[in-house]
Amino acid sequence: MLCFLRGMAFVPFLLVTWSSAAFIISYVVAVLSGHVNPFLPYISDTGTTPPESGIFGFMINFSAFLGAATMYTRYKIVEKQNQTSYFSTPVFNLVSLVLGLVGCIGMGIVANFQELAVPVVHDGGALLAFVCGVVYTLLQSIISYKSCPQWNSLSTCHVRLAISAISCAAVVPSILCIFVSVFTGLTFLPLPQKSMKKKAKVNRRVSTCFRRPIGRKVYIVKEIPQHCLVRSKQSLGGMCVQEGRKLIATL
């Protein structure tokens, strides 16, 4: 039997498949509609203008639900393993679950509150999704090492730690670029790509480059054929060409 058909393993498998499809489909529709630049657009850029905004919102909402289901399943598995062979305090596992669920709530906020409509709420949700998601992966890496070798191999733990380190290294410069852009007033304006200042474009490109590994990260927390967990998030940021044209017309 295929590994993703055993037990609850189909949940994280569906999470990765569905989330990847959400990013790819919304990106393709946005590019074909001429709403974004094909080269490294913000993920949220591909979900600000109809029709891709509806696709993006619906699919990311379901991804948030699948993420929450995956994390809760992981929590119950670790809880049962800890009862069989004690290796970590239950509070540590609970804190990990809470942070993961908060990250999923952040995903839902990003999907439902588009940046150009409610920018403060959108950015807050994105911050929750990124930070809580990265901390969750770190906590799960620690739990994996604590449960080794009873429930995990050392090589699996090393892989999880490496993915967590990459996520941490990516999220810091990504957030810094966002703050620099906001405080300098060079981005987060509803202007067309051609009207953006050069420094604003650089900030957006750099931020996107670092944000992509987080948005697409695949995090394994159980060995095959046991349950595995995959996290996928979307990033923040966005522009609307049509709104930009309206703004320019009023100047």
From TrEMBL:
Q: What are the subcellular locations of this protein?
A: Endomembrane system
Assigned keywords, A-Z? Membrane, Transmembrane, Transmembrane helix
Q: Which GO terms describe its biological process?
A: regulation of autophagy
Pfam families, sorted: Frag1
Where is the chain membrane-spanning?
12-32, 53-72, 92-113, 125-143, 163-189
What Gene Ontology terms describe where this protein resides (cellular component)? endomembrane system; lysosome
Domain of life where this protein originates: Eukaryota
Question: In what way does this protein cross or attach to the membrane?
Answer: Multi-pass membrane protein
Q: Where is the CWH43-like N-terminal domain?
A: 8-178
Q: Cross-referenced InterPro entries, in alphabetical order?
A: CWH43_N, DRAM/TMEM150_Autophagy_Mod
Q: Would you identify the family this protein belongs to, as annotated?
A: Belongs to the DRAM/TMEM150 family.
Q: Which PANTHER family match?
A: DNA DAMAGE-REGULATED AUTOPHAGY MODULATOR PROTEIN 1, FASTING-INDUCIBLE INTEGRAL MEMBRANE PROTEIN TM6P1-RELATED
The protein in question is named CWH43-like N-terminal domain-containing protein
Q: What species was this sequence derived from?
A: Gulo gulo
| Classification lineage | Eukaryota, Metazoa, Chordata, Craniata, Vertebrata
